Amino acid sequence: MKRPHLDSKLPHVGTTIFTVMSQMAAEHGAINLSQGFPDYDGPTALKEAVKRHIDGGYNQYPPMAGVPALREAVAAKVLDCYGARVSPDTEITITPGATEAIYCAVMACVRAGDEVILFDPAYDSYEPAILLAQGRPVRLPLAPPTYRIDWQRVADAITPRTRMIIVNSPHNPTGTVLAAEDLASLTELAERHDLLVVADEVYEHLVFDGQRHESVLRYPELAARTFAVSSFGKTYHVTGWKTGYCVAPPALTTELRRVHQFVTFVGITPIQWGLAEFMREHPEHLRELPAFYQAKRDVFNAALAGSRFRFVPSAGTYFQLADYSAISDLPDREFVNWLTREVGVAAIPVSVFYASPPAARYVRFCFCKNDDTLRAAAAKLSAL
Ligand code: PMP
Ligand code: GLN
Prior knowledge:
Layout: H1 17-28, E1 31-32, H2 44-55, H3 68-82, E2 92-95, H4 98-109, E3 115-120, H5 126-132, E4 136-141, H6 151-157, E5 162-168, H7 180-192, E6 196-200, H8 220-223, E7 226-231, H9 232-235, E8 244-247, H10 250-263, H11 269-281, H12 284-304, E9 319-323, H13 332-343, E10 345-346, E11 348-349, E12 362-366, H14 371-382
Parallel strand pairs: 1-10, 3-4, 3-5, 5-6, 6-7
Antiparallel strand pairs: 2-8, 7-8, 9-12, 11-12
Helix pairs in contact: 2-11, 3-11, 4-5, 4-10, 12-14
The protein binds 4'-deoxy-4'-aminopyridoxal-5'-phosphate and glutamine.
């Protein structure tokens, strides 16, 4: 048999760490605080609404941009939360997950040789999208413990080839949030150098301690050049439903849809109808979400307070970074393997989010878990 010639387009990419660690957790019966997904279900009324729409015959392709009722619910939410009026017809696209929206935005706008600024650490899906578009990722470090963006460094990194900048707030994996001054700096640079922006805001409703989420959609000059991306999976505890959306001005939305219609074409119909109904009938869900997750963060952090892990409480997301250097000298990948096998708690090694991992030793714990799960995990971690 003659083997085909294969020259990988992503030679350095392996199976994502989320799949690897969840599999290892299952094999060893460990408490899984690695991959970000809840061990509780989405709201009963939401599940009922989706089931009703399946039974009611909403099972064929929806419009390419998404079910109109869901786009209208997103427009109402964006107005309510951020004071921005966006058109459901020309500025909102429902996608099968935020990942697809980000991929389509990059594919639609980045050409061979274009530079895209992103940060180190960053969520793992950005760089492969840039590489597949034949763009050049330009990574700029976020230094612990604050992980603030150094905007002077961003300004210095911009060249005539820079096309896009990808920001993520609340930030996975660090749990930090961008401030209004950050968005002002971003707006100034993006306008001066005519950059496009991808704003990954999938954790927009998970911001703690009374802070407000600084969405790009609050700032018209910035929104005018931004793909703002969110995920119903995070907001409604249904990550496996893989449904998200992108808000972008009409010209950007046109380009996004040109790609989206040939990547997946649409998201799943009854899920979109169910989400539309639930959003309309249960606006309190969004209001209650920050307190719900802040309480989980506090349960986990309080239970971990007597341990030798050191941490700054997360300001947003459902992730908590922890420095384990007082416990072990192992590199983080080896540490999480040991932790999973010997201690019975799975976590994510933070180096996977970096192009140039620092010497510091951090792991990421996910706290979107039942309080009993969090306490059981913290008890094991506190014994170290
Ligand atoms: N961006 C970030 C920062 C994430 O943590 C996730 C979680 N998977 C995504 C995007 C993707 O979201 P989705 O599952 O809706 O594709
Ligand atoms: N976003 C989730 C995390 O960071 C995982 C998503 C995935 O498994 N691809 O844990």
